[in-house]
Specification:
Elements lengths: L11 E7 L6 H4 L9 H16 L7 E12 L8 E12 L2 E9 L4 E13 H12 L4
Antiparallel strand pairs: 1-3, 2-5, 3-4, 4-5
Length: 136
């Protein structure tokens, strides 16, 4: 199991994403209005959580997002930058829970809770390889 002894409640990570054509709801298929897409909001929130864990992962371990409960509460037009923040709110063995929020520099556009699990990378990749084998 990963040794996450230095990981503490209150640690913060951030990530930013420029709202471009490729990140609009109309482009990713999540809506018909040309605003920052909810799937992209989730992606930047997950990136903030990954940033928070950076430097705390033992060798050959990584974190995987396993749960998100997010509200996307305000629209963001093309050209603005969305910045997400993830704050560790609980550490339970390999399970890390974060409070997440995002702003576009004008409004708070989303918030919620995100959970990640720490996994042994070689073991995880072996599971993927086994699942990729042809089935008869």
């Amino acid at each position: 199991m990963a040794d996450l002894s230095q990981l503490r409640i209150g640690l913060v990570g951030t990530a930013s994403m420029l709202v471009t054509e490729e990140r609009l709801a109309t482009h990713v298929g999540s809506g018909n209005v040309p605003v920052f897409a909810s799937p992209m909001l989730i992606a930047v929130m997950e990136a903030a959580a990954v940033d928070c864990l950076d430097g705390y992962m033992p060798a050959e371990h990584q974190s995987l997002g396993v749960h998100l409960d997010v509200t996307h509460s305000a629209p963001t037009p093309i050209g603005l930058t969305v910045t997400a923040t993830a704050t560790v709110k609980a550490v339970d063995g390999r399970k890390i829970t974060f409070d997440v929020s995002a702003t576009d520099g004008i409004d708070r556009i989303g918030s919620g809770v995100h959970t990640r699990i720490i996994v042994d990378t070689p073991r995880f990749m072996a599971r993927i390889a086994a699942k990729s084998l042809p089935r008869h």
